[in-house]
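Page 42, continued from yesterday. The earlier attempt failed because a stray header line got pasted into the input along with the sequence. Redoing it now with the clean sequence only.
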Amino acid sequence: QGQVGDGSENFTWYFDDLHVYAGELPTSSEEFGGDIAGQIELRQNYPNPFNPSTTVEFVLPEAATVTIEVFNTMGQQVGTIANDSYPPGRHSMVFNASGLASGLYLYRLNADGMYTRTKKMLLVK
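This time it went through. Structure tokens are written below.
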């Protein structure tokens, strides 16, 4: 939310999501650093909430080394879903949380050390 005006007029706007870019936008992946991050996709786990297992999917446009780690809300790593090289395409992994307590967890995908994406999942026992 914000207000702008010269004293005689006021404008109010509301944002659900805001992206700010400084400078010129890249016009190709090479200008962005040769990274394929704009095309990598980490999907929401399902089912969510889950007990005790859930499926996590990700999509790669090119081969990449992928790590997907699970963290509790204290930031402690409590599991690993994936840690390997994967070919292009859609990949599906099952995470078994039978040894974990009920609660909110975060899972973070890292591809080739260049792209990171985090999502939430809820374990309910």
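Notes: Confidence is low (pLDDT under 50) at residues 1-37.
Reminder to self: strip header lines before submitting.
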